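Lab notebook, entry 75. We have the chain sequence and a SMILES string for zinc ion, and the next step in the workflow is to get a structural model of the bound complex before anyone spends time on docking refinements. Request logged below.

Task: model protein plus zinc ion, output structure tokens.
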Amino acid sequence: MSSTSEFIYNVSQLLFQFVIDEFMTVVKPIVIKTKKNVVSCEGQEGEASHPKVFLKVAGNACCPYCGKVFEKNAD
Ligand SMILES: [Zn+2]
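Result returned:
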């Protein structure tokens, strides 16, 4: 392997990792830790919100509107 193709290989690996990282950042849900059994969600602050919904947290719950995840904290 010449140094040039090795260099191109390394760059493409880095680029691939960069794309994966960006993608993971986009799809990563917002996780809220809570001790409550029931939480309410109205969407993100400063963004288009949705009707207030109450979610029962059994282990974890996911808002059907905005995809926010609520995780029960052991107390
Ligand atoms: Zn929500």
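Notes for the group: DSSP finds one helix and five strands in the chain. Worth checking against the assay data. Residues 41, 43, 50, 63, 65-66, 68 surround zinc ion (CB under 6 Å).
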